[in-house]
Amino acid sequence: MMTTNSAEDKNTPYILVAPNGARRTAADHPAIPVTMDEIVETARACQRAGAHGVHVHVRDANGQHSLDAGSYRETVAELHHVVPALDVQITTEAAWVFDVPAQLACLEQVQPDWASISIREIARDPDLAPRVYALCADQGTRVQHILYDSEDARLLDQWQRDGIVQANQTDRLLVLGRYSEGQQSVPADLDAFPDCPNRWMICAFGTQEHACLAEAARRGGDVRVGFENSLTGPDGTPWADNAASVAALVELLGKAKT
């Protein structure tokens, strides 16, 4: 498994908070941020707790997953205003709703500084794939590739060799599991992914989320934490909010260094 530390501070991983995701609502947890104001306030609290960046999903008027460019631009602008030191990453997740042309249009119209892109979703339309990555390179959008398994990693390697993915588009997010009811990730899930010298990050599901993130940090990776992936601590008790989860992770990572 990967051992290159990717954090700016070699002793501290980069912490990206994913506070809502595409699926969860207040019915799942009352502190799931859905509106722009809720997302911004959650981001501010998570920065105070130790997060370095926020992974943003916007919702439509009915609270459903959206790739609406106007909503993204407004939310990103407000985040930059309220928490200017916090990095902002948008998602292009299809969530079984959007096709590749819609994902491409979102990237083109929002022109984000940073975006997460699932390679298996873009592979649904191989003819558009080169345009997606070329657009990001041209407009200066940093890409984080979402990888669910070793097959996704192999596809990314192949697309990099073929020039479909640009040479400097190497960042990876390794997803330890699936978005499914009752998913429980474990630290050993890291071993399913091939070694890679490039910057990498993980996210994990269930009660062992923080244990998985701590193991990734030990191996030199960065970490993504938050209610998109897990609502509870190791004993199954729900976190009060995203900031509480971030604070507990920061404490755990600090203990691991001593």
Explained architecture:
By secondary structure, this protein is α/β, with parallel strands linked by helices. The chain has a single domain, classed as TIM Barrel. Helix content is 36%, strand content 16%. It has 8 helices and 10 strands. The strands form 2 sheets. Strands 1-2-5-6-7-8-9-10 form an 8-stranded parallel barrel, surrounded by 6 helices. The N terminus is likely disordered.
Q: Residue-averaged pLDDT, rounded?
A: 94
Shape: globular
Helix proportion range: 25-40%
Going by helix content, strand content and strand pairing, the class is: alpha/beta
Number of strands: 10
Question: Largest beta sheet: what is the strand line-up?
Answer: 1-2-5-6-7-8-9-10
SSE sequence, one letter per element:
EHEEEHEHEHHEHEEHEH
Distinct helical segment count? 8
Low-pLDDT sequence parts: 1-8
What name does CATH use for the topology? TIM Barrel
User: What is the CATH class designation?
Assistant: Alpha Beta
Compute the number of structural domains.
1
**Main pleated-sheet profile:** 8 strands, parallel, barrel
What's the CATH superfamily, by name?
A: Aldolase class I
CATH architecture assignment name: Alpha-Beta Barrel
Q: How far apart are the termini? A: 23 Å
**β-strand amount:** 15-25%
Radius of gyration, in angstroms, nearest whole number: 17 Å
